[in-house]
Structures are given as C-alpha cells and as structure tokens.
Design a protein that fits this description.
- By secondary structure, the protein is mainly α.
- It contains 14 helices and no strands.
- Helix 3 packs across helix 7.
- The radius of gyration is 40 Å and the shape is flat.
C-alpha cells in the first residue's frame, strides 16, 4: 500500500467525477433537445413540411442517447476490463512473465539472503514477512490491482528498488579511494536503473490517469449527437475513446514486458565490471524507450504511419550543436568588435599625441598641449558617435536589408561600392579653402557635388 494508496486514490477521485458530469450531460441534453425542436418548428413554419420527419429523427436520436447514457459507466468499465484481459492473457499468462514471477517469489535462498543482516545481499528497502509455510511474502502481490484493473505501482517500483539496491550492495564491498573508478561505474548503473525505471513506468501511470479523467469528463460531449450540426463533437469524443483504448492496451503490454525484463535483472549477479555496467545501462534505457513508445505505437496503428524512431534524440543533439555554433559566432562577433574598438581607440590616441607634438614644436606650453589633446580626442569621439548614428539610421530605415525599397538597396550598394561614409572624412571637410578660410556651406555642398 506504499505507492498503491495515493495512485488508486487519485483514480477513484477522477472516476467519481463521472457521476457529476453525467448529470451535466443530461442538463445539456435538455438544452440541445429544446433547440432541435425549435429548429424543427422554424423549418416547418418556413417550408410547411418536414415536421414529422424531424420529430421522428430527433426521437430516435434521443432514445439512442438515453441508452448510451445509462450504459456509459459499464461501457467505460468494460473497456478497462478488455485492456486488462487482453494484455494479461497475451503477455502475463502466455509469455512466461507469470512463470518467472512465481519462480522469483519462490526463490527462498534469494529472500533469505535479503533478510539476513550479515549477508552482503541484505535488503533495507523491504520487510519480508513469512507465511505459515516459511515462504517470503514480499513479492506475493498481484501485478494488477483486481479492483481497478491497472498495474500496481508497488509491484513496479519495488522491483526497481531491489535491482538498484543489489547494485549498491556491490559498491559497499569496495573502498572509495582504492576503487574510485569502480564506484563511479556502479553508481552510474544504479542511477540508470532508478531513473529509467521511474520514467518508463510513469508513461503507463500517466496514461491510466489520462484515460480515467477524459472518460469521466468527456461524457458531456454525448448530448450533441441529437443535433445534426453538433454530431462531429460526439464523433470526436467517441474516436478519442477508441484511441485511448488502443493507447492503454499498448502501454499496458509494454509495461508488462518491461516488468518481465526487470524480474530477470533483479536476480542477475552484478560484479561491477564494465561488461555488467554496459549491460545494465543498456537494458534500462531500452525498456524506458519501450515504455515511452507505447503511445507512438497506438498512433501507428490508428494512422498507419510509423512513429518509433530516434529522430527526437537527433533533434536534441542538433539543437545543442546549433546553440554551440551560435555561441561561437557571437563570441567571434564580440571579439571582432572589440578589436575594431581597440584599433579606433589607438588611432584616437595617436591623433592626440600628434596634436600635442605639433603644439610643443610651435613653442606652446603645457596647458596649450593639454588643450590640444583634449580637442583632438573630442573631435574623434564626436566623429565616431556621428558615424554610429548614421549607420543606425540606415539600418532602421531598411537600407541594409532591402526594407527601404529599391532606393534603399541602391543606396546601400553605392555606399558599399564606394566605401564612403559622409562622417568618416570629417577632417577633410574641415580643411580651409583656397584663401585659407573655413569653408562655407555652399562650398561644402559644391565639394560634395563634385565628388
């Protein structure tokens, strides 16, 4: 009752919703019936005929709906019973799982070692209780719960815990410092068994919860079968029930096959070698993938399209690779921009040094030299900001990506061809004219026109 109690309690709570939503379905049916009668009356008032046929058709639909509603709880229970019987007979009874199950629970030496506190195989996970004949009772539990007709979480998780505990018992025989590599391999095996076992079994248990919830709430879709315009809603719900039946069948079969594999792994000796580690890890991942593929197998049967593949893993690897490539590209971009900034900064420093040297050569003092350096650095910074603003403006106007239309693309092409930025030659524009005076606006424009 360790894990069975919460799991089956949730199932019972979800199943109890069915009675409430059955009442809501009858309420919706009354509304749909009134609407259908109103539509029939309007049609008769307009056309003057068809009332008798509409009433007869609606009456037949209502009778079918009533029969379906009264038998709905038994129909859902019958679906669970069919899944239970088909999966139980085909897998548990016919494939040797039951025989192996009985052999494992009757293996007295195995369980005696589990309760012997001096034995290396001693188990602290379970408490073995003996019956009158001295046979251990720990695994004398049904894989299926007879009341709910679902696989017991106790039966699955307890086997997983026993496998992991047997592996960890092997680790206790080694010294951590002298056999660190073996300890890592053994821990890897135990983690693989626990994680893969839990993740694989969760697929089945979630499927059981989903089936119970959908069948309990989805009954409110049945009243629309009486209305021609809403029949598709009921058809989708009935199709969903059929799909859930196939899904539950596949998930149950794959879970039982996994249980069979775990029973064999439980009594398999584990010596901690790389051979055993690879075997345990491979088997754990294999059965986890098998359980996770149960819904895909149902989709394959319903659609005829194969679903089982490793493409999801390949997509994940591709996503990680793309992320790494994007990170490397971003790093290169930042490094490139940093290099450009360093070069530009070096150029500004060189210009400032040249200005200081020129003032010094003309006999200027320290104050005049500092003033010249400041003006030079300020002019370089202003030119850089203006160039940046110009580039940002062109980007926002769409000239860089064709967003500015044909003219924008032509301007971009001409700028790229000439390599000219009207702010990148600020020093040239500041040169005096032929008379040694500053250029006027007209002279600036004239020089631009000549270019």
């Amino acid at each position: 009752m360790w894990l069975d109690a919460p799991f089956f309690t949730i199932l019972d709570k979800l199943a109890d919703l069915q009675s409430y939503f059955l009442g809501q379905a009858w309420f919706i049916a009354q509304i749909v019936l009134i609407l259908c009668l109103g539509f029939a009356a309007i049609k008769y008032a307009v056309n003057g005929e068809g009332l008798k046929d509409s009433i007869a058709k609606l009456g037949m639909a209502f009778v079918m709906f009533s029969v379906l509603m009264y038998g709905y709880p038994k129909i859902i229970t019958g679906i669970s019973e069919i899944v239970y019987e088909w999966s139980n007979i085909s897998t548990y009874e016919s494939s040797g799982i039951k025989e192996m199950f009985l052999n494992r629970q009757n293996d007295v030496s195995f369980w005696v070692a589990k309760i012997d506190e001096t034995a290396p195989e001693h188990s602290e996970v379970i408490q073995v209780i003996y019956d009158q004949g001295g046979r251990p009772q720990d695994l004398l539990i049904n894989i299926f719960d007879d009341k709910h007709m679902f696989i017991s979480p106790n039966a699955v998780i307890r086997i997983i815990m026993l496998i992991a505990e047997g592996i960890l018992n092997k680790a206790n025989q080694y010294s951590v410092w002298n056999n660190f590599d073996k300890m890592i391999l053994i821990l890897l095996s135990a983690i693989a068994v626990i994680l893969c076992g839990i993740l694989g079994s969760l697929q089945y248990f979630i499927c059981a919860l989903e089936f119970t919830l959908i069948t309990s709430v989805g009954v409110i879709m049945l009243p629309f079968m009486m209305w021609d315009g809403g029949k598709f809603i009921t058809e989708k719900f009935i199709g969903a029930i059929v799909g859930f039946f196939i899904k539950m069948l596949f998930c149950t079969i794959t879970m039982l096959i996994t249980f069979y594999g775990y029973l064999a792994l439980m009594t398999r000796p584990f010596d901690g070698t790389i051979n055993e580690v690879v075997y345990v890890v491979f088997i754990s991942i294999f059965y986890m993938m098998l359980c996770q593929s149960g819904p895909q197998l149902a989709v394959t049967l319903l659609t005829g399209t194969p679903q089982m593949s490793l493409m999801e893993a390949a997509k994940a690897v591709g996503a990680y690779a793309a992320t790494g490539a994007a990170g490397m590209a971003a790093g290169k971009f930042v490094a490139s921009k940093a290099t450009q900034g360093a070069v530009s900064g070096g150029g500004a420093v060189a210009q400032a040094a040249g200005a200081v040297g020129a003032v010094k050569a003309l006999g200027g003092g320290k104050g005049e030299q500092i003033q010249a350096a400041g003006k030079s650095v300020g002019a370089s910074a202003a030119a850089g900001v203006q160039s940046l603003a110009h580039g940002l403006g062109r980007s926002l106007m769409g000239s860089g990506n064709g967003g500015g239309g044909k003219g924008g693309r032509n301007n971009q092409a001409s700028n790229n061809a000439g390599g000219i930025n009207r702010y990148s030659r600020l020093a040239e524009y500041r040169q005096p004219n032929a008379e040694g005076q500053s250029k006027t606006i007209r002279e600036h424009l004239a020089s631009q026109y000549q270019r």
